[in-house]
Amino acid sequence: MKRISVLIAIIGLSASVLVSCKNEGNTTGEPSAENQHKDHKGEHPPHNGDRKGPPHGGDRKGPPKGGSPEQTKTLEEIGGYKIGDVATDFNLKNVDGSMISLASIENAKGYIVTFTCNECPFSVLYEDRLIALNNEYAPKGYPVIAINPNSPENEKEGYAAMQKRSEDKGFTFPYLVDEGQKIYPQYGAVRTPHVFLLDAERKVQYIGTIDDNAKSPEDVKVNFVKGAIEALEKGEKPSPNFTKAIGCPVKASKA
Length: 255
Prior knowledge:
Layout: H1 2-28, H2 75-78, E1 92-94, E2 99-100, E3 110-115, H3 121-137, E4 144-148, H4 159-169, E5 175-177, H5 183-187, E6 191-192, E7 194-199, E8 204-208, H6 224-233, E9 248-249
Parallel strand pairs: 3-4, 4-5
Antiparallel strand pairs: 1-2, 1-5, 3-7, 6-9, 7-8
Region (Disordered): 24-72
Signal peptide: 1-19
Keywords: Signal
């Protein structure tokens, strides 16, 4: 009987460990495709829920599990900038300690203002594409200006973590802190990443996602930001000038 009791205890412990590993995997694993089409309630700002981050010690390779990552509210409902609005300038701290404003960028013909962050899997998926965008278009007068809108209450989104992320990835563009979280509500950024293409007069010409395939850059068919810039270069209006942002909800301070 003693030997049977020990055997039962071992089996129970093994089952417990297996369940624990399975549950952990469910919070950090790559989702199935159908999860991207599920309905998602609510839009931000502000934040009223915690996001699951990527696995400890590494980047998640796919979008998160759960509700749809696509924004659900219209520009009118969000209450930020609309197409044609003139964006207010800002003066935000860069990861190198300097202060960056739109006015401080010389010879700009426009600005690819992008709200992004350290942890969101979608932001991670687009980092290389943002670097490529900046490398291609900054010399033409359209630099990327990345802003982290998330609350620094999560230290993985704080300034030190931003500095490390920028260094590790070799960002070729400014990565700014939205201190006090005052800028992202003005723009109406609700997801990370969320792009606002401005012209030389800071008029908003395009709002939305970078391209039509977050998960696979090789399978992108439409580069929305590139198309919008090329239209401006021709003296035309971007078409489309709005797409729904795809990513994680912006995380506002709980204070």
